[in-house]
Design a protein that fits this description.
This protein has 11 helices and 8 strands. The chain is α/β, with parallel strands linked by helices. It has a single domain, classed as Ureohydrolase domain (Arginase, Chain A). An 8-stranded parallel beta sheet has the order 2-1-3-8-7-4-5-6, with helices on both faces. The longest helix has 19 residues. Belongs to the arginase family. Pathway: Nitrogen metabolism; urea cycle; L-ornithine and urea from L-arginine: step 1/1.
């Protein structure tokens, strides 16, 4: 398979700096070599956008901070993702904060529409990222990106790249949530997304949840996997912007990626929120490489 590694060192969507160095950390952890060892061809994209550092930018709307540079960067990303996926090649996007999902999802959605195929998103994250400007407690766009992709929020976000909804909320499946804002919970329930929280995992066991996830996507043609490293317990991934106890283990996350690879429906993916400033000996980036490898065909035996 031809895999395009798209580096998006964007951290305008979050409060804590450092995730802009995530793509470099993942590159140094050997993502290219690991994927090529699986027989894939890799192509690097390291010059997608240019922007002044966050400290030199105008915040703009306090309920959607740094809206303009985020929209500009994600629009460029969307065009590249559509171009790559339209050739039946695989875009693997490395963040950066989770606001880059606006571009990734818009790009693969455009391809699905052109191919007249159904499209869904597996969102593996401790958070919902389903706020709008009325519910957001922070104004950070990384907490609004999935709602906007589902058509909820500011028009500048909901109409990014092309006008209208990018993914039907009924085709969105969350895994690993454990920190949802009250307002976004209301939006999520109203929209009709499917959520498997950490409590669900504790109650039913992870293999049962994985099976439910696979059943959820049975009628979907194209899946985008959006993986936020903060879904993992900080014991396994300390280098994230919002580390929360009680998350997935590395074994659970690797199993989920391997099982999703087995569906043969995953056509694009992103791994976000690796923050080397907060990491320990680059272990979070190293785990990110393993997750990407499992999603793209690596098995233990």
């Amino acid at each position: 398979m031809k895999i395009h590694i798209l580096e998006m060192p964007l951290d305008f969507g979050a409060s804590r700096h450092g995730s802009d160095m995530g793509p470099s950390a993942i590159r140094l952890a050997g993502i290219k070599q690991r994927l090529e060892a699986l027989g894939h061809s890799t192509f690097e994209h390291t010059d997608i956008f240019h922007a002044k550092p966050q400290e030199y930018q105008n915040i703009g709307n306090p309920k959607a901070k740094y809206l303009k540079p985020i929209v500009n960067a994600c629009t460029k990303l969307a065009g590249l993702v559509e171009e790559i996926s339209g050739k039946n090649e695989f875009p693997l996007v490395l963040g950066g904060d989770h606001s880059i999902a606006l571009g990734s999802i818009a790009g693969i959605s455009a391809t699905a529409k052109k191919q007249n195929k159904s499209f869904g998103v597996l969102y593996v994250d401790a958070h919902g990222d389903f706020n709008d400007t009325n519910t957001t407690p922070s104004g950070n766009i990384h907490g609004e990106c999935l709602a906007a992709s589902a058509g909820i929020g500011l028009s500048e976000l909901t109409n990014l790249y092309f006008e209208g909804q990018k993914v039907d909320p009924k085709n969105i499946c969350f895994v690993g949530c454990r920190d949802l804002d009250s307002g976004e919970k209301t939006l999520m329930k109203k929209a009709g997304v499917t959520v498997f929280t950490m409590s669900d995992i504790d109650r039913h066991g992870f293999p049962a949840i994985v099976q439910k996830v696979k059943e959820f996507f049975q009628k979907i043609d194209i899946i985008h996997v959006s993986f936020d490293m903060d879904v993992l317990d900080p014991m396994f991934a300390p280098g994230t912007g919002i580390p929360l106890p009680g998350g997935l283990t590395n074994r659970e996350a690797l199993l989920l990626m391997e099982e999703m690879a087995g569906t043969e429906k995953v056509k694009s993916a992103e791994i976000v929120e690796v923050n080397p400033i907060l990491d320990v000996r680059n272990q979070t980036a190293i785990l990110a490489v393993s997750l990407a490898s499992r999603l793209l065909g690596e098995t233990l035996y």
